[in-house]
């Protein structure tokens, strides 16, 4: 299991040609913790950001991601539901609240199992100084609801 921040910026290689087709810029997932895929930033004027479904990834490595075929990249409009960390539906930086009204901090990152395609947990920050003195919090993956102002997690932790 790894955090998405360690994967952000990794190059994406096409196995058939060995060419770099872009780099990972965001992760897409559901509120129940299922990874849908990734947003890949590529060079060029048109279609700079494309959606790469999880099933198209052959391998996650420390130095890059390998896909079977670049033709698996889709337009972002093909992603109808779900959330991401940083893009249009990005939820990073939103306050995380429990159903009993307790603020846990701000969502900063996700832990995920690449091969299983699931979110294993969420990294919560309470701010720079709290992170230095106490460290960041890790919350297990639980279903959540995203509102305009906050993320509500279905737990009483």
UniProtKB/TrEMBL annotation:
Pfam families: PRC (PF05239). Gene3D superfamilies: PRC-barrel domain. It comes from the Bacteria. InterPro entries: PRC-brl_dom, PRC_barrel-like_sf. Residues 5-69, 91-153 form the PRC-barrel domain. This is Uncharacterized protein YrrD, contains PRC-barrel domain. It comes from Parageobacillus thermantarcticus.
């Amino acid at each position: 299991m790894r955090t998405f921040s360690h994967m952000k910026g990794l190059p994406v290689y096409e196995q058939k040609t060995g060419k770099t087709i872009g780099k990972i810029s965001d992760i897409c997932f559901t509120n129940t913790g299922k990874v849908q895929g990734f947003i890949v930033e590529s060079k060029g004027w048109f279609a700079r950001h494309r959606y790469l479904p999880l099933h198209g990834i052959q391998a996650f490595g420390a130095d890059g991601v390998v896909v079977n075929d670049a033709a698996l990249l889709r337009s972002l409009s093909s992603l109808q539901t779900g959330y991401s960390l940083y893009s249009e539906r990005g939820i990073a930086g939103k306050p995380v609240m429990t159903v009993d009204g307790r603020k846990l901090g701000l969502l900063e990152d996700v832990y995920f199992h690449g091969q299983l395609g699931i979110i294993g947990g969420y990294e919560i920050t309470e701010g720079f100084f709290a992170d230095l003195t106490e460290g960041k919090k890790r919350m297990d993956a639980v279903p959540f609801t995203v509102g305009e102002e906050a993320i509500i997690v279905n737990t009483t932790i």
